[in-house]
Amino acid sequence: MIKGKRRRRVLIVEDEPALRLSYERAFNPRYDLAFASTGAEAMEQLEQYKPDVAVLDMRLPDTDGVDLLRRIRLTQPDLPVIITTAYMSIEPQLKVLDLPHSGYIVKPFRLDELGARIDAVS
Predict the structure, then answer these.
(1) Are the CB atoms for 83 and 90 separated by under 8 Å?
(2) Which helix (H) or strand (E) holds 23?
(3) Domains of the chain: residue spans and CATH
(4) Which of 12, 26, 49, 88 is a Cys-bridge partner for 34, taking CB atoms 3.0 to 4.6 Å apart?
C-alpha cells in the first residue's frame, strides 16, 4: 500500500480459471482483488467487497454479461465497469440497450492494457 493511499479494489468477474490465475498473478501486487466466476457470485461480491472497479466478462455460465451489467447498474449506477469479451460486436448492443460502461476490451489482450484501463477509470 502506498503511504496514505488505499489500494484500488477490483472485482474481476471471469469464469475461466486460467484467466483468473493470470489476472491474479499480474494484478495482485497492484490492486486488492476479488473474483467471481458467475453472475450470482458477482452480485454477492459487489455487495460484500464494495469494489472501486469491476472487470466483467460477457460470457458467464449462469447469465450473460448484458443482463449482469443491467443488474449492476440498478444497484451501483456509478461503478466503473470494464467489459472483456471475445466478440467485437458487443458495443452496438450495449449502446442500443443504453447500458453505461467504462469501455470494453476484446480478448485476447495484453494484461498491461487491462491494467491501464483500470487505472484510467478509477
Answers:
(1) yes
(2) helix 17-27
(3) 9-121 (3.40.50.2300)
(4) 49
44-79 burial, b at 16+ Cβ within 10 Å, e below that, comes to ebbeebebbbbbbbbebeebebeebbeebbeeeeeb
What is the C-alpha to C-alpha distance for residues 22 and 72, in angstroms, rounded to an integer?
25
Block residue for cell numbers 466466476:
37
Q: What is the CA radius of gyration of the chain?
A: 13
Give 6 or 28, the one with higher predicted confidence: 28
d(CA 90, CA 73): 17
pLDDT tens-digit map of 48-103: 999 999 999 988 999 988 899 999 999 999 999 999 988 766 665 666 467 777 88
Determine the pLDDT at residue 100. Answer: 76
What number of CA atoms fall less than 13 Å from residue 109's CA on the CB side?
A: 19
